[in-house]
Amino acid sequence: MVINDRNRISAIEALRGIAVITVVLYHYSWFIHPLESTFLRRGYIGVDIFFIISGFLACHNTARYDSSSYNSIKYITNRLIRICPAYIIVTLLYVGTNYTLHSTSTGAWALIKSLLFLPQLSEGGPSYGSPVVDVGWTLNYEFFFT
Questions:
Q1: What are the residue boundaries of the structural domains of the chain, listed by start?
Q2: Where does the record place a coiled coil (predicted)?
């Protein structure tokens, strides 16, 4: 593993690139015939790669700290500060746009659960009930296992 001057692990960056490409091709394959019957439909493996990267980086980035309450709260707070603002903005824009363009309103409980990274529990895995912005199901897992 090579760690460059910006403290990035080059192998992780390469894996992240592979994961992005596989996920994009997977989603693309749903709309283009005859791609729906090709190996591209196995691109969901990119999500698994992202989860592995996330777990590795969580361990790697916190290895030098003890397991005190202070460090745990600091870690969780930093994650929330990095992820929540963008997720909240996207979710609220989605709800507003959906209401404006389609006159479809999102239930308050569904919105609250989405913003708190709680599954909707209306369907089975992997999403266990997608949040308002359905691709946010991965964040539910991220925060559950953090």
A1: 1-64, 66-146
A2: none
